[in-house]
User: What shape does this take?
Amino acid sequence: MSIVHGQWTLDTEPVLPLKPADVAVALQLSLTPDAPYRELAGAVGISHGEAHNAVRRLQAARLLRAGSRTVKPEALLEFLFGGVPYVFAVTPGAEVRGVPTAHAAPPLAVDFTGADAYVWPSAAGRVRGETLEPLYAGAVHTATMNPALYELLALVDALRAGRARERQRARDFLRQRLGAAT
Assistant: This one.
């Protein structure tokens, strides 16, 4: 703390608002914590500079340990469960062809086989379903380029757009995959 013009201030950097791709960066860091920035950027489908800026924003939001790229699992889960559905809300749209997400994608597809599908719009997609705008533009490519991240993003979409049972199963899977004690 310091005193500026007779008032107490905190000597911290301003908290920058998180961007949707930052969620994907946090999820990827939970999968590959020691990946160099270039590898991180490639895995998420963003530029090297965007990956670097995302890490800074995640650190400022206290979702990563101070001065490192280590994810704080409990904090990330708390944000995924209580923040993402509101901050990055989504409403299903028209039926199109695309890449399955939410309960229509692995790992939830095994439990919710008869439910109507949600898809990220894509000409390369093989499933028809209601449109869900992906969390960020590069998400669609993770289905083929990074299946582990794709599954985590699909679970996040279940939190954003799913019904109560789908959200609960997504929470269970995310707790298991992110290794949190919560």
In short: The mean pLDDT is 92. The CA atoms of residues 74 and 181 lie 7 Å apart. Strands lie at 2-4, 7-9, 95-101, 118-121, 127-131.
